Amino acid sequence: MDQDQYKVPETGAPQSMVPVTTTVINIRSDTVVPDHIVWSLFNTVFMNWCCLGIVAFAYSVKARDRKMVGDLTGAQSFASTARCLNISALVVGIILGIISIVLLRIAFGAAYWALLQVMQERSRYH
Q1: Superkingdom of this entry's organism (predicted)?
Q2: Using CA of residue 76, residue 77, residue 81, residue 84, what is the dihedral sign?
């Protein structure tokens, strides 16, 4: 084997007189704008108190449309509004859900108590 074949040339000045050119590629980083469309759809189906879920879904669709067009500022604005509406719908839904459960528990307890009283009175007369 010839050892000159595997020799690395010494570094230094370029061997040719041709100027070295460089290429700069600017890669545009896509800013991720969440549109909260799944959250809005969940709130529309399950937590739609005061129609906040439907309004949040509409703003989420607007945010997605703005993002597809390339208007990131508009998309961020609509997405922020959709996020606030989703938070409001979720909080109101949880609070009203708890209140509904408590009121139903009280109503069923009162109905059970009244039914028990009626049955005890009937057993006394027979």
Answers
A1: Eukaryota
A2: positive
Q: Is the pLDDT of residue 82 over 80?
A: yes
Secondary structure E strands in the chain:
none
pLDDT band at 32 (very low <50, low <70, confident <90, very high): confident
Q: What pLDDT is stored for residue 17 in this prediction? A: 66
Inter-residue contact 35 to 68 (CB < 8 Å): no
The interaxial angle of helices 72-125 and 52-69, nearest 10 deg, is 160
**Calpha distance 55→113 (Å, rounded):** 42
How far apart (Å, rounded) are the C-alpha atoms in residues 35 and 31?
12
CA distance 60 to 35: 5
Q: Considering only CA atoms, which of 96, 95, 93, 89 is closest in space to residue 59? A: 89
